[in-house]
From TrEMBL:
Keyword Oxidoreductase on entry: no
Organism: Corynebacterium pollutisoli
Name of this chain's protein: 4'-phosphopantetheinyl transferase EntD (Siderophore biosynthesis)
Keyword vocabulary terms for this entry: Magnesium, Metal-binding, Transferase
Entry GO CC: enterobactin synthetase complex; plasma membrane
Alphabetical GO biological process terms: enterobactin biosynthetic process
């Protein structure tokens, strides 16, 4: 499943596989009360997703050697508020939660996204893919990646998660053109101006029913 090849050497990560049918609130109930309050009025499925992802984040911070008794709260557009010297990202989807963190001395910003490895509904792809991205989807399918459109979606989500903490500005699907490469890497070329970086690099994998994309600005 998730492995270190997706991330910079300085990063630490954690993930959990969960029951897709039964939400487990154990990790949610173990959170700091201020973290619990962020989703206290949500349904149990949402509480379980939130609790598991936050649990993963705290485990990754411990692996990094960070004192992590402080809650990880939310900023603009749901952005996690990490400790001052840390950057990171979290993701959750059906049956899978994960988080990655790294010191800002090594990594400026990070993004992580995971989705079930299923093709997107046919009517959705036109709102996600730019014209220049369509040919590579066919190439990837010919190489056996049947969920190529879902991979593109994940890469754009991971790009946005790395972009927003640096800019505090929205980035639409049309604002980045993704070059997905067969070696498990991709490059997101940013088409908006001004931009703090011209592109964001990433890694991807498809494993055990999930497609996962991770980005890092070093």
């Amino acid at each position: 499943m998730l492995n270190s090849s997706l991330f910079p050497d300085a990063a630490r990560f954690c993930y959990v596989i969960t029951d897709r049918e039964r939400p487990d609130l154990q990790n949610y109930h173990g959170l700091h009360p201020l973290e619990q309050a962020l989703v206290s009025h949500s349904v149990d499925v949402r509480k379980a997703e939130f609790g598991d992802a936050r649990w993963c984040a705290h485990q990754a911070l411990r692996d990094l050697g960070e004192w992590d008794n402080e809650p990880i709260l939310r900023g603009e557009r749901g952005m996690p508020l990490w400790p001052r010297d840390i950057t990171g990202s979290m993701t959750h989807t059906e049956g899978f939660r994960a988080a990655v963190v790294a010191p800002r001395t090594h990594v400026r910003s990070m993004g992580l996204d995971a989705e079930p490895a299923d093709p997107l509904p046919r009517e959705v792809i036109g709102s996600i893919a730019r014209p220049g991205e369509m040919p590579q989807l066919e190439r990837l399918r010919n190489e056996g990646i049947e969920c190529a459109d879902r991979l593109l979606f994940c890469a754009k989500e991971a790009t946005y998660k790395a972009w927003f903490p640096m800019t505090h500005r929205w980035l639409g699907f049309e604002d980045a053109e993704i070059d997905i490469r067969s070696d498990g890497s991709f490059v997101s070329y940013l088409l908006v101006r001004p931009t703090p970086v011209p592109f964001i690099s990433g890694r991807w994998m498809v494993d055990d029913g999930y497609v996962i994309a991770a980005t890092a600005v070093t």
